[in-house]
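Figure 6 in text form: structure in, sequence out.
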């Protein structure tokens, strides 16, 4: 299946500025993923602002130099430095300076300085059924499973590229047919007192992720809504022990 870009998308991709660079990254990623087109997104959560090496800083600064700005609301995952000075960061120069430059570059790109892996608890809660481009595994599974928005797990630098062009590849969990459950995870045999405990949901999530990998399942046998904190713990553990992006 070949990728079809709109005339507007083709024009952006042909430009030599930061937006053109971002569009070429998104379009080539879509082609490699087998997506037939790009789709508009309502927001992004950027995981690529955490310093892992100089290349990430230089990439972000190149986007800034090209005049790029995010086209949709874009929150930031954790950074490598505590800008408030409340904790001690064991990061020496020149890495410390490069980490600060990276964080500053993402600010210049127009991202909200949320610096959290749980943007949904900081007011960033996309509406049911909207397409977004989120990074950070626990945020992705919460976004899909609890909020009902639609996102794949967007890795470093593809996330900011999607945010700049306001589009994402139309594949994976953006498509309704790929969001259907394939299995049932039945917890009805567990005691209500255990399910009501704080330890239950991270333990069950860890087991679920190890058992299902990246499959989509239905959790059955829960009497009542366990609460968002429980679902957050379940999803985060499942995304860590497996590759879960959505559960029902």
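Output sequence:
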């Amino acid at each position: 299946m070949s990728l079809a870009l709109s005339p507007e998308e083709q024009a952006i991709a042909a430009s030599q500025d930061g937006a053109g660079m971002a569009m070429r990254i998104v379009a080539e990623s879509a082609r490699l993923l087998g997506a037939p087109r790009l789709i508009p997104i309502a927001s992004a959560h950027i995981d690529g602002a955490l310093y892992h090496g100089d290349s990430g800083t230089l990439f972000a600064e190149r986007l800034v130099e090209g005049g790029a700005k995010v086209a949709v609301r874009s929150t930031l995952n954790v950074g490598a430095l505590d800008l408030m000075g409340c904790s001690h960061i064991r990061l020496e120069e020149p890495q410390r300076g490069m980490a600060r430059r990276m964080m500053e570059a993402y600010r210049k790109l127009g991202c909200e300085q949320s610096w959290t892996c749980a943007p949904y608890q900081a007011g960033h809660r996309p509406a049911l059924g909207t397409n977004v481009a989120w990074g950070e595994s626990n945020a992705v599974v919460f976004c899909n499973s609890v909020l009902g928005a639609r996102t794949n797990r967007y890795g470093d630098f593809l996330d900011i590229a999607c945010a700049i062009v306001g589009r994402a590849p139309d594949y994976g969990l953006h498509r309704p047919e790929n969001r259907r459950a394939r299995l049932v995870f039945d917890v009805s045999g567990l005691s209500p007192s255990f399910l009501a405990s704080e330890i239950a949901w991270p333990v069950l999530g860890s087991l679920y992720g190890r058992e299902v990998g990246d499959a989509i399942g239905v959790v059955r046998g829960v009497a009542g809504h366990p609460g968002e904190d429980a679902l957050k713990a379940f999803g985060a553990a499942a995304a860590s022990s497996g590759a879960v992006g959505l559960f029902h």
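Caption detail: The CA atoms of residues 135 and 154 lie 5 Å apart.
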